[in-house]
Amino acid sequence: MVDEHLKTQFARDIILMKLVGMNPVVVHGGGPQIGSLLEKLNIPTRFVDGMRVTDSDTMDVVQMVLGGLVNQEIVSLLNSNGGRAVGITGKDGELIRARKITIDESSRELAASEIIDIGHVGEVESVDGTILDTLTNNGFIPVIAPIGVGPEGESFNINADTVAGCLADHLHAEKLILLTNTPGVLGADQQTLVALTADQVDKLIQQKVISAGMLPKVRCALKAVRGNVTSAQIIDGRVPHALLLEIFTDQGVGTQIQKSAS
User: Fold this and answer.
1) What are the tens digits of pLDDT across the range 66-121?
2) pTM of the prediction?
3) How many Å apart are CA 72 and CA 149, to the nearest integer?
4) C-alpha of 6 from chain center
5) Which domains does the chain possess?
6) How remote is the C-alpha of 131 from its chain's centroid?
7) How many angstroms separate the CA atoms of 29 and 9, rounded?
8) Sheet harboring 85-89: ordered strands across?
């Protein structure tokens, strides 16, 4: 989502999906944009286990970037190409109820584990899809920023892939599609694995063939297909019309993960 030509193709693919009777729901992140604005504002950034420590000042920036800049850019892109998109966050209509994440990290200096508070970072507690039903049933394409609401009305920054997986599960989606900047899940020979079952993915994780940055996306896909989602695709968003190629061709442009045979 940094190449202007690819962004336009993405928007047109989503609109075509809507026109042929599908109900696409778009969930986006915005890590690089958040990092850039924090740097401009001289707000220091620290990560713990890959998660951005999010104090009140950082959360303000997260909401500005995700709920404002990135969300509205995608909405405008869809609308200017003939779609009818509406931008929301997980706080709207209490779509995503969230709970705070704390990290239990073992310390060499301490006899017991240390509980690390990483601020306004959350995980999905529950989903209320009423607002999504209202939008999709009236011909709109929801564009969702991954910000959840806590029990006291506070905001929580949630991983976008996690939000997408939970929403797909709640909606009993036919497909969960995760766009990446890689060819998909790679095997030991560094070739793209076109089709995998959930059990095969488990083995690849155990063998450490799947590791590092791909792990969160794969685990999100696994949880979805073991729930109410028929299949999950991790695809290369750098390929022109990647969405349409994945949906309407046999080979696709990435890795498909399906339920294992019972």
Assistant:
1) 999 999 999 999 999 999 999 999 999 999 999 998 776 544 344 444 556 677 88
2) 0.90
3) 20
4) 18
5) 1-171 (3.40.1160.10), 173-262 (3.40.1160.10)
6) 19
7) 18
8) 26-27, 141-145, 85-89
